[in-house]
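Pilot study result, target chain (203 residues):
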Amino acid sequence: NELLDLRIANHVSTWDELIIQNDKFNKEQLDADKKLTDERIANGNRVLEAAKITSDAIFSILNGNASRQATRDEKILEERKDAGLITEQEYEKGVEAIQRKAFERKKRMDIAQVVIDTALAVAKIQLNAAVAASNPVTILFAGVSISQVGLAIAAGVAQIAVIAAQQFGNGGMIEEFANGGLVQGKSHAQGGEKFAVGGRVVE
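Predicted structure:
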């Protein structure tokens, strides 16, 4: 009986050791999988972030160039008016045309930037979801990530609607805010009207 008890005890000890080793292996494997998932997400996010930075820089340069071109065109008109080549009325019409063109151009560029930003946001969500779905540790989070795609698209559509609602009227840009407010007054050529938008005084 003592020999039998000893053999049973040895088998139990060996079995316990196997369970411990198996649990240790599983934990190490799960940790390795999680680390790999985190690295894949981080690498993907770095690529998307670099794309966003590049996109923002390009739009910033384009907007800056357009603004400087409009300023140069207005300066040329002013010089022609001062030289008596055009009348005050022709000057004002010319300035308004320049401002309208610049406004519509910026509006198109702002919408394009929102489209790109929304696409990048959706790509980031899909990346996280795809990586999560490929790992048993994080597969449950894949569905949560995918559900955010609709929210990102809705936010982008809302931004585009706000930009599209902006109008250009006599006296400069009129923004159709939610409360129905608008700015009216003298044209830029006549000195403009100063008002504050988001804490910044503009004309």
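One observation from the pilot: The chain has three helices and four strands. A full batch analysis is planned for the follow-on phase.
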